[in-house]
């Protein structure tokens, strides 16, 4: 069944009478089960034919009861705008200055998680600043969005050295068991309870985390956490996933993602042979595991060329 959208208040509701504005030239397409977002409760609820975000106004929704909504677009620009619209609507509706709306963004290596998260945060902060200035705000507009990458929760190299098979641990660095999900969970719980937190970043030059390098302050309404395993339904990862108010998965063909990862390895100085070996020995098995967590997403974003 194909249904189109019309606007009612803050939300975009669906009808079966064709597109709400057939003259629009944007080509964002949302398929399957729509969402109703309740910013005041900071939760997500499924609703029969209603969506709580401007992102789905652009084209057509077709409903399939057991699937998450799928965001498809012809360009990455449209993806950025749709996701920014979605979160900006939520930020405007948040009345409690200490509240946090935490979004988990998962997907395989090479899907574009970091790029998408960074650009959406940049646009959110830019548009919020413009909004503040238009309302005669006299102070310096605050940033309302920030990123916490999962990379900062890698185990240290010294911790890998202490494992039963250090050589294998280093070769498989990037697999779920080479991260510290318990520390990530503690960080997110602190953020929720206190409204601020210091989080680690990752120094790729050194190859280890940098403690307390990212400060999420009380004025950050929106926090995007991005990383490979955030939607895994096993062990401590399941508890991490339960913290998120909303879960996104960037969907991409594994072969295409691995081509991107191969180029990334080569760009860091690895020879083509070593880069290819690492992709097949480590990155591809990790990607195949990550793809199994797509079913846990609230929104699936089809990857397009960056």
TrEMBL record:
<protein>
    <recommendedName>
        <fullName>Phosphoribulokinase/uridine kinase domain-containing protein</fullName>
    </recommendedName>
</protein>
<dbReference type="GO" id="GO:0016301">
    <property type="term" value="F:kinase activity"/>
</dbReference>
<dbReference type="InterPro" id="IPR027417">
    <property type="entry name" value="P-loop_NTPase"/>
</dbReference>
<dbReference type="GO" id="GO:0005524">
    <property type="term" value="F:ATP binding"/>
</dbReference>
<dbReference type="InterPro" id="IPR006083">
    <property type="entry name" value="PRK/URK"/>
</dbReference>
<feature type="domain" description="Phosphoribulokinase/uridine kinase">
    <location>
        <begin position="102"/>
        <end position="304"/>
    </location>
</feature>
<dbReference type="Pfam" id="PF00485">
    <property type="entry name" value="PRK"/>
</dbReference>
């Amino acid at each position: 069944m194909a249904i189109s959208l019309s606007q009612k208040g803050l939300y975009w509701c669906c009808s079966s009478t064709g597109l709400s504005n057939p003259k629009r030239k944007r080509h964002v397409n949302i398929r399957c089960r729509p969402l109703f977002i309740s910013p005041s409760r900071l939760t997500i609820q499924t609703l029969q034919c209603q969506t709580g975000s401007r992102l789905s106004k652009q084209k057509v929704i077709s409903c399939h009861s057991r699937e998450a909504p799928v965001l498809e677009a012809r360009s990455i620009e449209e993806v950025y705008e749709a996701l920014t619209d979605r979160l900006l609507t939520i930020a405007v509706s948040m009345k409690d200055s200490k509240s946090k709306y935490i979004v988990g963004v998962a997907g395989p290596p090479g899907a574009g998680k970091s790029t998408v998260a960074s650009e959406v945060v940049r646009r959110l902060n830019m548009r919020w600043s413009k909004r503040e200035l238009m309302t005669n705000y006299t102070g310096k507009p605050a940033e309302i969005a920030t990123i916490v990458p999962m990379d900062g929760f890698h185990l240290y190299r010294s911790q890998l050295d202490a494992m039963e098979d250090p050589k294998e641990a280093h070769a498989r660095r990037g697999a779920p068991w080479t991260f510290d999900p318990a520390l990530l969970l503690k960080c997110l719980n602190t953020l929720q309870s206190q409204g601020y937190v210091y989080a680690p970043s990752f120094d790729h030059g050194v190859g280890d985390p940098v403690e307390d390098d990212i400060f999420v302050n009380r004025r950050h309404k929106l926090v995007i956490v991005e990383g490979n395993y955030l939607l895994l339904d096993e062990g401590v990862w399941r508890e991490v996933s339960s913290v998120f108010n909303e879960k996104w998965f960037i969907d991409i063909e594994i072969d295409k993602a691995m081509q991107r990862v191969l180029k990334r390895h080569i760009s860091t100085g690895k020879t083509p042979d070593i880069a290819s070996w690492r992709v097949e020995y480590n990155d591809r098995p990790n990607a195949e595991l990550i793809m199994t967590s797509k079913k846990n997403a609230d929104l699936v974003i089809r990857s397009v060329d960056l």
